[in-house]
Fold each of these.
Amino acid sequence: MSNSNKTKPEKPSNKTQNKSAWLTFFYVGTEEVSFSEDARRILIINLFTIVGVFFTLPLGIISLFTGKTTLGWCLVFIAVLYAINHVFLRFSRNHSLSGSFVIYPLYALMIYLVYTGGMNGTGHVWIFCVPAVSLFLHGMKQGLIELAVFTIALIIVMFFTDNYFSEFGYHETLPSRILFSFMVVIFLSGIYEYSMSRFNDELKEKTGKLKLLAYIDSLTELLNRRGMLQRLEIKEQEVIHLLLADVDFFKRVNDQYGHDAGDYALMKIAEIIQTSLPEYGFAARWGGEEFLVALSEGDIQEANALAELIRKRIESYKFSYEGQVFNVTLSVGVASTTPSVILREAITLADNRLYRAKHSGRNQVCTD
Ligand SMILES: Nc1nc2c(ncn2[C@@H]2O[C@H](COP(=O)(O)OP(=O)(O)OP(=O)(O)O)[C@@H](O)[C@H]2O)c(=O)[nH]1
């Protein structure tokens, strides 16, 4: 293809670039934008720190200007802490510690707000964000324990201290209403967190199974072609010896003993191949009745010897399926990658040698 025909890689649109910049900003501290539990926590930390800075800083400044000096400095301190935390997460990627920098100052600030009343006696309205953040960041078990401790602290502050409630002329039932509604929010956040983590666990398990299905052959439990290629590509820079084996006259096995007997034979052959491999060998079902073995160490003599061993073990094995006993044989082609023979070429070479083994009478190993 001439250079002029080559298509230039498409430049991402401004919209896509903006979206990706926002995502990177909110997922900072994680390797990739994904839906893993850790990535979700990091997203929550980043969102909370950013929202925290944008809300807390103006409120702190207003408090300072309206003479509420202690409250003002507390809020400014929290805003600065959250901003530093965002930078800390960006460089350390330690979301566990970063989560603690978010949640523990938050608990302290909330207790302080409930005790003092914050701005004009509205301090208590902020406590309802605590359960969701606590459960999100620390999970069900630790989150609930911390919320229980926080609720006890809340009860002590609201019912057993000389707090602001009396100052603002609130109805006497307000503290108990706050407490009950706070517990309802804990309950609802708990249900949400529980169902989210169950959903995540199931998703993880199903994704794991799907990945396995994508790379493993379900009949023989060996790698499938995709799984083998993936493993071979990882070892592309190394010398690899390849044994491509094909069952001889397998159509006859199916025709004579039935398709199920054929399946059984494939399973047994896979088992024999697998149990013949050295530690550094791996095998795949390459196609219908074709198997590919790869050796990432050893020399070509060892590869040839292994091919011969497998061939002999199959030849002498008595396949027995539902009272029917039969024999099968294998033809094998062996080839290796070298600095001048890349993987695809070595596979083609092994295939050509397998073809030669077939045409030289089958049940044999062809190495050149
Ligand atoms: N039972 C069973 N048979 C399969 C499976 N996959 C492929 N086959 C059969 O394998 C047979 C392969 O036949 P051919 O390609 O003609 O080769 P062959 O009979 O083995 O003959 P040669 O390779 O020339 O020695 C076909 O009959 C396929 O139906 C499978 O998963 N199970």
Note: The domain at 225-366 is CATH 3.30.70.270 (Alpha-Beta Plaits).
Amino acid sequence: MTLAFSASLAARGFDVTLDVARGETVAILGPNGAGKSTALEIIAGLLRPDSGHAEWDGTALFRLDGGPRGAWLPPHRRGVSLLAQDALLFPHLSALDNVAFGPRSAGVGTDAARATARTWLAEVEASDLAAVRPGRLSGGQAQRVAIARALAADPNLLLLDEPLAALDAAVAPTIRRMLRRVLEGRTAIVVTHEVLDALTLADRVVVMNRGVVVETGQTREVLERPRHPFTAELAGLNLVLGTRTAGGMAADWGELVAPAASIVRGAAVAAAIRPSAIEVSLEPLPGRDNSVPVTVIDLEPRGDSIRVRADSLSADVSPGRAAALDLAPGDRVFFGFDGEDVSLYGSERPSTLR
Ligand SMILES: Nc1ncnc2c1ncn2[C@@H]1O[C@H](COP(=O)(O)OP(=O)(O)OP(=O)(O)O)[C@@H](O)[C@H]1O
């Protein structure tokens, strides 16, 4: 591991261990207040944890575990560049000089620093903005310049805190594509609460909630086969935990029909079901492999569909279907889906939860 990090900070309920390998992009995914920014601030050296240690390639960034070998490297000596959520550009400097600021601070001469800055502006497809002052940049343009500025410091480790959150929906995809290219082969941690960012930018994902890591692994594997209810919620999937039976699985609220030939009976299993695969009906659905009686808890508009949250599962229906069913909280209805709509897998992830 290139970065080995472990820290706790009681005031923020934060207790996290994570690693990043050289050339790897790791996404930290989680809701507001999960501790994602706290992790970046501690790694960058802006915040001191109560205890813990972090090493980069064997060199201590900090070691606060007591004893005589304590260490605390100041932020500018860590080789870490943090693009914070509120990355402000210097208003009185052109985009080029904003990007040249890092190399200049490191002692590089003006011309050489500007040459470096031009390279990084080109890297983020913003060469044409070199002479423009920040006040005249759009949100997307300013973010390109801020990313170039973070890269121009030539960090070993790049930390990006919600790099796409402040951007218009129309601009985010082009910046996301640019970031994907820029991050290729770089060692980086990207904080996000968007599953799409994790899927497009990260090799591995660390899911956090309330200051702790709840799940980690290869991005696609974690998001398609969540083991933790919280990850399933982020991924927009129903997660059912239970035990493998002959025909599928036993959940605490009943039996689910699902194919999964390779999992032995009695094993702890998880099932993921897309809400859009579930049919909602006022009557039992004998034609479907599964017809689960549920109680509606609430209805929530989601894009062009309505999410029907029930006690055990959630289903997405069209607004027309929701109106036809005249659904309301407390209603008893049936959720129908077939075995082939259920993705069944072992619920343990022993090797990747590090
Ligand atoms: N400056 C601060 N002083 C004290 N507590 C803080 C401070 N900043 C954050 N916290 C608390 O620390 C916890 C973790 O917050 P943090 O900002 O790291 O979460 P986050 O996952 O980055 O959330 P967001 O997505 O909202 O940025 C929260 O309980 C938060 O209230």
Note: The domain at 242-346 is CATH 2.40.50.100 (OB fold (Dihydrolipoamide Acetyltransferase, E2P)).
